[in-house]
Every structure is written in C-alpha cells, then in structure tokens.
Amino acid sequence: MTEVKNKNEWYEWAKAIIIAILIALFLRTFIFATSIVEGESMDPTLEDGERVIFNKLIYILDEPDRGEVVIIQRPTKNYVKRVIGLPGETIKLTGNNLIIDGEEYSQTFLSDEAQYKTGNFGPIRIPDDSYFVMGDNRAISKDSRNGLGFIHKEEIIGRSELIIYPFSEWERTK
C-alpha cells in the first residue's frame, strides 16, 4: 500500500513540474521575455548590463505611445530605445528642445546633462507606418537620427516593464 502511495505522489509531483514548465514556456514565448541592455545609450534610465523584462503582448493589443521604452528587433541585434515620435508627426530637435508638430514637448525622462547634448535635427516627417526612437543618452545613442532610421511597428517586439537584474536596481522602467 505504501509503495502505491509513493508512486502516486511521484506521479503528482512530475505532473505539477511538467505543467509549471509548460506555463513558463508559454509565458516566455508569447507574453514576457528578457533582454540585456548593451551600452550606455539609455543612461540614466537603463544602464549597461541591466536585464529587463519586456511585455510581448502589449503591441498586439495596442500601439506604442510616446515616452515608452521599447525593444526593437533587428537582424543582427535587439535595441532598447524610447519612442519619441509617432506615425505622421513632424519632429525637430533644436539644442535641448524637442518640437513635435510645431509644439515643444517636455522630456522629463532626460537628465539635465543629456538635454543639452541633443543637438539639432530635422524637421523630418515620420512615415505613417513608422516610429521615431531615441536613446536617453542623446550624445552617444545610435537611434532614428543616426543609424536606426524609422522603426516599423513590426520591429517593435515589446515594451520594457521591469528591471530585474542587478537586484539592487529592481524597479519599473519609465
């Protein structure tokens, strides 16, 4: 009798472990994934080597919004950048001023130092099927101004939600 009870207990444990693994695989494949920040282009918001969890489902249900930190998938690597301009808008950067469709936009996510290193760019109209992205560390960021170009919606694979490593930096990304 004890032997049958032990077999049933092992069977229940094995079943629970398999179900947990399947749920984890489903979540990782379709809902959440992780990405490692490479470089200093998103300082001070995200630092080199930090690991973030990103939401893969959000942009199936919704569109990227200005100010969101997104993961962009390119053939050679993924990039972590901030959405600055939306489809159809006209962007212009003059010094530390961001002008969108003729109106100045406050960049509260930038450090004072980064705002003064933005430089001049534009005006340029964003195509209707694309987004304009930039890193928060404007002086060294490879972004829509200088290498990435406009970003198509299908290249945006998720929104950064949470810094998970290092543990001392554990917080929501803004």
TrEMBL record:
Residues passing through the membrane, by range: 16-37
Membrane keyword on record: yes
Family annotation (InterPro entries): LexA/Signal_pep-like_sf (IPR036286), Pept_S26A_signal_pept_1 (IPR000223), Pept_S26A_signal_pept_1_CS (IPR019758), Pept_S26A_signal_pept_1_Lys-AS (IPR019757), Pept_S26A_signal_pept_1_Ser-AS (IPR019756), Peptidase_S26 (IPR019533)
Domain Peptidase S26 residues, every copy: 11-164
Key words, A-Z: Hydrolase, Membrane, Protease, Transmembrane, Transmembrane helix
Record's bilayer topology term: Single-pass type II membrane protein
Location (main, coarse): membrane
EC number: 3.4.21.89
UniProt keyword Amino-acid biosynthesis present: no
Protein name: Signal peptidase I
